[in-house]
Amino acid sequence: TIKKLMNLIVLEPPAAGKGTQARRLGARRGLKHLPAGEMLRTEVASGSELGGNLKSVMDAGQLVPDNVMVAMIAARIRAPDCANGFVLEGFPRTVAQAEALDAMLGERKISLDHVIQIVVNQEAMVERVSGRMECDQCGMSYHETLDPPFLAGECDDCAGTEFVRRPEDQPEKVRARLIAYDEKTAPLLPYYRERGVLNQVDGTASV
What we know:
Layout: E1 6-11, H1 18-29, E2 32-35, H2 36-46, H3 49-59, H4 66-76, E3 85-89, H5 95-107, E4 114-119, H6 122-130, E5 132-135, E6 141-143, E7 163-164, H7 171-184, H8 188-194, E8 198-202
Parallel strand pairs: 1-3, 1-4, 2-3, 4-8
Antiparallel strand pairs: 5-6, 5-7
């Protein structure tokens, strides 16, 4: 089957499932999944000049400048595994970043086909995130109500009985992250809607 070249961005609040959906879209359409965080780590590990610059910024606890992020994405999408298109996840997060990304793609005559927003209910999101836990022994992930171990209190993978929760998954911290998302990322929605590429899907439906 011939797959149409397609370039996508997936937007979502914290833990709404963008990683899962971006991977599934990539696999189904033959597109390269490009998570921003993973691209950063890969570039740093490569030992390139750009990777060295990124490492210095990240080691100093600073945010990676937008122009550096866009340069990294520009280099990445030239790779052969992006020949059929890409699914970008985790970038852009602000209108300024979106404008910089559009300018870079325009220079390369690359079109952005769709921006997919995963829409979630905030309180449902708090419940989803704050219920997450991991086996302290093997790191297997669970949710206390949505995806608990088969046997209560025992890891399916290693039979461990100790489970831990990440500090950032506390309800008050999840709410703070959602507020920050709304303040910084929500303006992207009218930006992409005006360009006719925004698509919204229900993030509370089944995978």
